[in-house]
Amino acid sequence: MLRNFAMLMPALLVMAVTLNTASCGSGGLLTPVSSNSGTPTSTATSNVGGFGFVTNFNDAKVSSLTRNTTTGALKRSGTIAAGAKKGPHGLAVAPSNAFLYVANVADDNIYEFAVSSTNGTLTALSPASISNGNGSGPDQLAMNSGGSFLWATGSNDGTVAAYTVDTSTGQLAKNGAALGGFNTPFGIAVNSSGSILYVADAATGEIWPLTIGSDGKISKSLPAAHSADVNADTPGFIAIDSAGASLFVADQQLAEVSSFSINSTTGALTAAFTFQNSNVNNSPIGIGIGVNTGVEFLFTANRGSGGLIGSISSFVATGTTLTTPPTVASGYNGPIGLAVDPLNKFVYAADSGDGTVSLSVINGTCGSSICTGPTIATENPANASSAPYGIVLSH
Predict the structure, then answer these.
(1) Among residues 357, 359, 356, which one has the least CA distance to residue 382?
(2) Is 15 a residue whose pLDDT tops 70?
């Protein structure tokens, strides 16, 4: 399974971390700095996309980074512990950018942090975590646009848990019993209206549209949908297009992306098409959408296999259709999580194979829709074995 991927990474893929000059694209160098001990605050910030946060799976740390929104360059600003080792996976940042939440599959907790409005550094709230339930394995997180509700997939016990959020303090509270009946729920995304929560079951291939009540509680009132490819049974992360009319999911084992149409009234899904990646060994995991120069692009993080060490693919998206083959930015090392910046100029990925975050440039100077950029170590000193997993940017 994907959540064990970092532990199973072949040793030959773990290499010394270096800072690389961009081979193409207009982004500057991702410049490292020493950890900053500035006092964090929970004050909301309007610094659009100015901060990034990455989970380091192996050593259970969360890295905070500042981002130059013009060049895309990143700088480390600090690291903080987030529970048990081999546990931190998904993250969610509050719409106010004042709080960050981290799911730990190893100790069944969701960790809560205040975000400094100055440099994005993190301070644990008190209490610092909330239990998702013994044996639940909280994996991926999603929040509504108002920041009042949070949901977590429990990949170990087959549940999706709902939480209310105190938007002043950042504290989470259980919102009723977790919804069961899933096998291995993993990828999760909420629609823009906050009425439907989409959950990918990584063992059955089903994508569930869950109805969100006015109180944030969820229910199975709509049928699950499976990819048009009957063999696509290991969906990973989920992306919804800018119009809210199409849903895309990357399959963790197959080198393809599946698309679904979204009913504009009910939110129900209908399987549409499947699209091959650039190479049969480029199995996508992370996924994201951005609109640049009036063109909608879908991006995938490809962890690589069969001699490939990883890449980022760029598809042109029109409704539920993707243009293939995609353009590829290569040379990255086992990317898993992926984030498109709010200004739709850059793509960032957590490179699990070498302890870095990679930058790709959308429509950069290399002449392609996606251009290979530099990387930065997530920790200082650099730790090639930290196994970065999830990544999010501030809003």
Answers:
(1) 356
(2) no
pLDDT of residue 32: 35
pTM strictly above 0.70 = yes
Say which residue the tokens 């950029």 belong to. 373
Three-state DSSP state, 201:
strand
- Give me the pLDDT at residue 44, please: 59
Query: CA-to-CA distance for 299 and 335, rounded, in angstroms?
Result: 12
Q: Are 55 and 62 in contact (CB under 8 A)?
A: yes
At residue 15, the 3 state secondary structure works out as coil
Cβ-proximal residues to 23 (8 Å cutoff; 6+ apart), any chain: 331, 366, 371, 372, 373
Domains of the chain: 24-393 (2.130.10.10)
Tokens of 317: 């998206």
| 189: its two tokens | 């995304």
CA–CA separation, 67 and 80 (whole Å): 18
- Total length of the chain: 395
Write a three-state SS string for 106-139.
Answer: CCCEEEEEEECCCCCCEEEEEEEEEECCCCCCEE
CA 161 – CA 139 distance, rounded (Å):
11
∠ CA 65-242-114, rounded to 5°: 30
